[in-house]
Amino acid sequence: MLNAKNEFPARRESRRNRLLNVRLAPVDIASLVVFRMGFGLIAAWWAVDYMLRGRMHAAYLVPKFHFTYYGFDWIQPWPGSGMYLHFAVLALMAVAIAFGFYYRAATIIFAIGLTYVFLLDRTNYQNHYYLLVLISWLMVILPLHQDFSVDAVSGLTNRRLTIPKWMLWLTRFHIGMPYFFGGVAKFEADWFAGAPFRQTLQANDWWPLIGPLFRQEPIVQCAIWGGLLFDLSIVPLLLWRRTRIPAYLICVVFHLMNSQLFDIHIFPWFMIIATTVFFEPDWPSRVLHVRRRSANSKTLTNPQLMPSWREMAGRKKIVAALLFAYCLFHCVWPLRHHLYPGPASWTEQGHFFAWRMMLRGKMVGFRYFLTDPRTGQTQQVDPRPTLSHLQMMSFGRDPEMILHLAHHIAAEHLRQFGTRVEVRALVLTSLNGRKPQLQIDPNADLASIPRGFHSRPWILPLTEPLPETPWIVPISQWEQHVKIPTLTFLQQNSGARSALKNVTPVAALE
Fold first, then answer.
1. 119 and 262 share one domain
2. Rounded CA gap, 93 and 101, in Å?
3. Mean pLDDT confidence for 256-279
């Protein structure tokens, strides 16, 4: 009776162990070695290009104020030539990763350094930078220097031809996220209506031969539905052996097109290389006709030759639980915008870190007002001397950054004059070709509103419908077409009310 009672739990336990053993079983390391080299070389190119083209200087040295992430205000750019030295170290560490030279130290230094750069300014956020940060920390735990590396040749690490299978699948998971969640995010009315993708295509009608086709509505509809189907289906097609090669070729064409249509820097080239992880683990050996012992051979599963995965098998339940929790978080986190009221493209809540790409184009006109509560006097504040051109072209799309700058304006006034002031903003926003409307409550004192992840009732709901044709009016004339409620703080200061043309407008597309 005792044996019968324990039979079913024992079977379940046996099935769990077999499944875990499959995930911990060895596979050829060759594909991830190529991934390591590609990641390192492209990351080095990114760091050097950022310095040579002046992007690093414009993004981190020109601004007097940085839109840091909430909770990370203590992260600021290095003084003097520190940022140039920082990017030089990043480039050197990336090259060291590519060649597997002191790999462990290089990956740790690079991951910390890249995360630091990423957190410096929200206006420089792009989804592929977020992906690179995730990959950089993944590289810290993956022993990808154990073959075809300086470390393996010099004896700094034991040479091994295999790695546990879960490492390959975790890498595939990271590369698949932008594709899949990029498709999920497209289930919005604006995307199906062709906004703002239609305007993006039409802006590229200068292309030889195919440019005029971008203005043809059937081509636009094919691009809209094709983009959605590509994002949702490409990972399953890459995983299925029979469709893998044509799916990869489609990926290459897709990313080459993106490199021409959009200013997304290294992302297309990185994804062309990174997507090769969906091929069989030993594909580099097959392509180069290099003879390597099979990852399934008895020799390679010998405990003396494969101590890493055998040792890990003893802690397999902990490893499996951690991997499950990590992957579950990254599956839920991109969907958090559903917890907030209003569309994420308008409120920006839940937009970052969610693989929401090419979903909103915004034109923004704004003015900041500073009011002394003791005297009731109001004056307009021009933020342009504080910000760089890149920041001016980006921050106005996000109410959180509008709030952050208001806090900075109040803090600067307190520092200079020793008095606390109220800061308000008149922000007119056109989303995806809509007629502009007020985005935030112009009577709300932003200096008294805390930053954070909570709900933002001071963001006004989106009420303007999406027109059949984009609403095109010079931004200096917007106030003539938009009804603005009474601004109580200006009733006695009519002179503070000036035209929007006095402040640089913001245009943002991502």
1. yes
2. 9
3. 90
- Mean pLDDT in residue range 455-475: 90
Residue 498 falls within a domain, yes or no? yes
431/195 Cα distance (integer angstroms):
9
Task: Report pLDDT digits (tens) over 10-32.
Answer: 555 555 555 555 556 789 999 99
Residues 330/50, Cβ–Cβ less than 8 Å: no
Classify 147 as helix, strand or coil. Answer: coil
Range of the domain at 145: 23-336
**Residues 36, 50, 404, CA angle at the centre, nearest 5°?**
105
User: In this structure, are 366 and 330 located in the same domain?
Assistant: no
Residues 325 and 399 in one domain: no
Is the separation of the CB atoms in 304 and 297 below 8 Å? no
Instruction: Among 304, 336, 368, identify where a domain stops.
Output: 336
Q: Is 138 found in the same domain as 32?
A: yes
341 within some domain: no
Tell me: do 259 and 375 sit in the same domain.
Answer: no
Q: Rounded to an integer, what distance in angstroms lies between the CA atom of residue 293 and that of residue 284?
A: 13
Q: Which of 22, 334, 387 is nearest to 178 (CA)?
A: 334
Task: Identify whether 352 is part of a domain.
Answer: no
- Across the chain, how many H-helices and E-strands are there? 20, 7
pLDDT > 60? residue 5: no
Half-sphere exposure of 388 (CA within 13 A, CB side): 19
Provide the pLDDT confidence category of residue 499 given band limits of 50, 70 and 90. Answer: very low
Domain count across the chain: 2
Closest CA to 422 of 503, 490, 497, 347: 490
Q: Cα separation of 331 and 18, whole Å?
A: 25
pLDDT at 219: 85
Those residues whose C-beta lies under 8 Å from the C-beta of residue 322, and which sit 6 or more positions away, are: none
> Which of 299, 41, 37 lies closest to 148 in space, CA to CA?
37
H or E, element range at 363: strand 361-371
Kindly state whether residues 282 and 175 are assigned to the same domain.
yes
Give the three-class secondary structure for 365. strand
- As given in the structure block, the two tokens for residue 242 are 């029979």
Q: Are residues 274 and 382 in the same domain?
A: no
| Residue 194 to residue 434: CA distance in whole angstroms | 13
Residue 3 falls within a domain, yes or no?
no
Residue 306 makes CB contacts below 8 A (sequence gap 6+) with 26, 160, 162, 300
Other C-beta atoms within 10 Å of 411: how many? 14
Tokens 């053993």, residue located? 21
User: DSSP state, 77?
Assistant: P
CA distance 303 to 247: 38
Looking at the fold, whether 425 and 325 belong to one and the same domain comes out as no
Helix boundaries (H) for 263-379? 267-274, 283-288, 307-313, 316-332, 344-347
pLDDT in tens, 466-489: 998 888 888 888 888 888 877 777
Measured in degrees and rounded to the nearest 5, phi and psi for residue 106 equal: -65, -45
Check pLDDT > 50 for residue 158: yes
Q: What is the pTM of this model?
A: 0.88
